[in-house]
Amino acid sequence: MNYKISQRAASLAPSLTLAIDSKAKQMKAEGLDVVGFGAGEPDFDTPQHIKDACAKALADGFTKYTPAAGIPELRQAIADKHKRENGLAYKPSQIIVSCGGKHSCYNVILATCQEGDEVIIPAPYWLSYPEMVKLAGAKPVILETSDRTEFKVTPAQLRAAITPNTRLFILNSPSNPTGSVYTPDEIKALGDVCIEKGVLIMSDEIYEHLLYDGAQHKSVASFSPAHLEHTIIVHGFAKAWSMTGWRLGWCAAPEPIAKAIDAVQSHSTSNPTSFAQKGAVAALAGPQDHLPKWLAEFAKRRTYAFNKLNAMPGLTCVNAKGAFYLFPNISGTGLKSADFCARLLEQEKVAAVPGIAFGADDYIRLSYATSMANIEKGLARIENFCKGLKR
Ligand SMILES: *Cc1c(COP(=O)(O)O)cnc(C)c1O
């Protein structure tokens, strides 16, 4: 049978991260001692009170359809969070809860972009953004950055990329994959350009709470009413509450866009899981004391890895101020990222993600959401690998 694959689906790039990941899993299954730096999720458990709230909802029979955009108390709790932490006055009707921050991103793009539209995405980017833009029939426009500017785009660079077809600018600070964090002034300046040019901003703030070295997060929506009007915030429970498997995220949008997203969602997935939403209410309303502990642990690992990487022949690394990734430059080794990662896995049994997956072939992504023991062992092996290349 000659199956015809739709143009939309066929246009998607195969996931390189998954290819390395499945090879690493296969090696592990064969009993090999593989150290993984690929994790895109915290290695901590979901806090107990969140699990308890979900278990109670399940026991109470809270197992039926909810409104497609989420239960009112969760939308209210999210609106309260934005008021409390970001100084933003969203109504619950402007909040749409979806099946993960990823789903929220996709909904936003589907609800705002179509054929002929351009979406500006700074590289290195989270690998799903360009593919989602393509699924919507629009065109990703990639803005290159490098470690020389801590992977940040400048307002001038953004302005030069905007055309009459530009619909959306995707901002992700703190960033996956680089861990880079824009300062409030830098964020405001990018927002100013979008306002001037009439471009919407999709601001993915899922790593908002994971900051180091006194770095500050300020939402682009929070600088003025015009900034708020031009911004759609995407957020979720995966990272700061370690709830990746729960599949819960949200967006906060101007009312007409929220309505459109609600319509998209009501005809595709309907509501996110009912009892998971009850857990999410507890995540926002309950104690947040897990977070300082996690941050202290992440910070310790980050400093250790940062120092180690910079001492290796052929590698340089700028320090990340957020998230849980480091993004070392490997160009001094003479290898491109896919080759580097394939050989590293083969020779030293260390799994890392090639930067080319994020649009940056001179880098690799290392996640430090893994134990200190793993980090020590894995970095010693990477060092050995780099030394071997120099000989
Ligand atoms: C993890 C992540 C998300 C959301 O993940 P979900 O598991 O779908 O909630 C969104 N954006 C970025 C940049 C991420 O790293």
Can you offer a commentary on this structure?
The chain folds into two domains: 7-46 and 290-388, Aspartate Aminotransferase, domain 1 (Alpha-Beta Complex); 63-285, Type I PLP-dependent aspartate aminotransferase-like (Major domain) (Aspartate Aminotransferase, domain 2, 3-Layer(aba) Sandwich), CATH 3.40.640. 43% of the residues lie in helices and 13% in strands. The chain contains 14 helices and twelve strands. Strand 5, helix 8 and strand 6 (200-204) form a beta-alpha-beta unit. Helix 5 runs parallel beside helix 6 (128-135) and helix 5 (101-112) packs across helix 10. The termini are far apart. Pyridoxal-5'-phosphate binds at residues 40, 100-102, 126, 172, 176, 204, 206, 236, 238-239, 244, 249.
Number of extended strands? 12
Largest sheet: 7 strands, mixed
- Supply the CATH superfamily name of the largest domain: Type I PLP-dependent aspartate aminotransferase-like (Major domain)
Structural class: alpha/beta
What would you say the CATH architecture of the largest domain is? 3-Layer(aba) Sandwich
Q: Separation of termini?
A: 52 Å
Give the cofactors and ligands.
pyridoxal-5'-phosphate
The backbone outline, from C-alpha atoms, is globular
Mean pLDDT across residues: 96
Number of domains: 2
| Percent range of helical residues | 40-55%
The H/E string reads: HHEHHEHEHEHEHEHEEHHHEHEEEH
Task: Give the number of helices.
Answer: 14
Question: What is the top-level CATH class of the largest domain?
Answer: Alpha Beta
- Please state how the strands of the largest beta sheet are arranged side by side: 2-8-7-6-5-3-4
Strand content: 5-15%
